[in-house]
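Need Universal stress protein's 3D structure for a figure. Predict it.
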Amino acid sequence: MIKPVIVATDGSPAATAAVEWAAGDAARKGLPLRVVHAIDRLPYELARYPVPTDDQLTWAGRRVLEEAEQAVRETHPALRVTTALLEGEPVKVLRRAAADGAEIVIGSRGHGGFAGMLLGSVSTHLAGQVPVPLVVVRPESSAPHGLIVVGLDDSDDAEAALTYAFEEARLRGCRLLGLYAWQLPVHAYAPEITYDINEVRQAQEQHVAAVLATYRERYPDVNAEMRALCGHPVPVLVEAGEKADLLVVGSRGHGAIGSVVLGSVSQAALHHARCPVAVVRTSSTEE
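Structure prediction for Universal stress protein:
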């Protein structure tokens, strides 16, 4: 069974950008596109909000889906597109939908069927919690840069993110830049421990070179470069994302990135990066 790229829409500018991004990605991968809209009745269960009829909510949801489908068919007439009007809270709806998809694409914020869902609330609940890559798209558009940026460390999620990034670069025919951000360990109870920064840098660069050699064998047509940089991963990745078409991160990390708690880097990237951000977990490539 061929799994589709799933994109959530509520008709907002960010959702419209997400639909456009998802359509392009589905076309490159030869996958169908499934556009979903959630009818969330929870806000209307409070007495202070006017209660629309079921027909009004359903009509509005269908209108959003019809407009999204029409926009996709205008730009990608050969793409197979289906739509679905779903009931429930947006996060729960998308988690269920993920089981049947190859990836999920959402806008950075929305309204209507995704009322009140700002960037942080959706990404916090979905990043690392769905078994497929999650791509968050902002409404701002920019000229293509021909570059995919991916963050890497020693974790399994970073390997999954690398594979996703190389596939995207291969399909787009663009460059790939892998960034390995590292920091010297700080021992609070043994401040006398010191490190030779040149030796540490050399070790990190050797590791990056080994990773690059492995992926170059698998993706010989991708123009890839790996860099080991001394610094915190968030500003390193966000700055690189300024000139990228896509920033790819694992849902969690450790090793060179150093004691990163679940989702801290990916959440920061989602909040601060201006380009689309893909959050990939290990099961994204295993399933």
